[in-house]
Design brief:
Helices cover about 35% and strands about 25% of the residues. By secondary structure, it is α/β, with parallel strands linked by helices. It has three domains: about 120 residues, 3-Layer(aba) Sandwich (D-Maltodextrin-Binding Protein, domain 2); about 80 residues, D-Maltodextrin-Binding Protein, domain 2 (3-Layer(aba) Sandwich); about 90 residues, Porphobilinogen deaminase, C-terminal domain (Double Stranded RNA Binding Domain). It has a five-stranded mixed sheet with strand order 2-1-3-10-4, with helices on both faces. Strands 7-6-8-5-9 form a five-stranded mixed sheet, sandwiched between helices. Helix 9 runs parallel beside helix 10. The radius of gyration is 19 Å and the shape is globular. About 45% of the residues are buried.
Length: about 300
């Protein structure tokens, strides 16, 4: 028996059931229980994430369940996982990455470029807000909270002209048709590790380690190390408009390389600082640190301190 801790939103439940299916495929006959938990991030829906504590709000209760032996495994969206891990826990298994990019979801127009001046675009992310205003300083950004269904309902009710969501979430919930435009590079970068599911468990639980090991995806692990290293060096939280995206080239372990692009911006989009680099896949962590140091050298520290 393995107990999987998960949030209760439709997307979180999809992720937990996806992990459940992978475990049962790898270990036929395994018994699995889903432990459904409500986090602070699920409860506080009337304020922007950047003002109530950021990423950790969506996983603290799951981590407490692990530490209290109320669950054996927690399933997380990696972009919600802070760079620092609590003592006694480890997250060293990530699944194959889904679509990492953001999606513009619009009621009437076909693209970000076609939105009329003064349009209201909903997002709860400072990263999305800063890139949006850098490209379209003539539109208005309004805060948007809630699960995917709630956000789409608010759009359909006319509260916004468009909203920005993660492509991965829409695609996992079979809402591909709601994607008006995929927002991708080089003009738009996603959140570090967006589209990656991570598996967290107690560091001394060798039983769970052996069970989840076969689920690890090597390529996703490489890009996660590179992108998370940027966030770790910059001590990034939801209060920092940081984007990072890594791509792996090659299929043989000895010849795989990783390219990393990252940026830090002011929330109003008036200042965008970019850095990039490339290295062997084995040096992904060092690459992330190097790109972060380049961002700092170009002025990212001043932007972060001002926030």
């Amino acid at each position: 028996m393995i107990r999987i801790a998960t949030r209760q939103s439709p997307l979180a439940m999809w992720q937990a059931r996806h992990v459940e299916a992978l475990l049962k495929k790898a270990h036929p006959g395994m018994e699995i229980e889903l432990v459904k938990i409500v986090t602070q991030g699920d409860k506080i829906l009337d304020r922007p994430l950047a003002k109530i504590g950021g990423k950790g709000l969506f996983l603290k209760e799951l981590e407490v369940a692990l530490l209290n032996d109320e669950a054996d495994l927690a399933v997380h969206s990696m972009k919600d996982v802070p760079a620092d891990m609590p003592d006694g826990l480890v997250l060293d298994v990530v699944l194959e990455r889904a679509n990492p990019y953001d999606a513009l979801v619009c009621r009437e127009y076909a693209s970000l470029e076609e939105l009329p001046k003064g349009s209201v675009v909903g997002t709860s992310s400072l990263r999305r807000q800063s890139q949006l205003l850098a490209l379209r300083p003539d539109i208005r950004v309004a805060d948007l909270r809630g699960n995917v269904g709630t956000r789409l309902s608010k759009l359909d009710e006319g509260q916004y002209d468009a909203i920005i969501l993660a492509c991965a979430g829409l695609e996992r919930l079979d809402m591909h048709d709601r994607i008006t435009q995929q927002l991708d590079g080089p003009g738009w970068l996603p959140a570090a590790t967006q589209g990656i599911i991570g598996l967290q468990y107690r560091s001394n639980d060798e039983r769970v380690r052996q069970w989840v090991g076969p689920l690890a995806d090597e390529t996703a692990g490489v890009v996660a190390r590179a992108e998370r290293a940027v966030a770790r060096v910059l001590e990034a939280t939801c209060q920092v408009p940081l984007a990072a995206h890594a791509l792996v080239e090659g299929s043989e372990p000895d010849s795989m390389t990783v390219r990393l692009d990252a940026l830090v911006a002011t929330p109003d989009g008036r200042k965008v600082i970019k850095a990039s680099g490339q290295s062997p896949a084995a040096d992904a962590n060092a690459l992330g640190e190097s790109v972060a140091e380049e961002l700092l050298a170009k002025g990212a520290r001043q932007v972060i301190e001002a926030l």
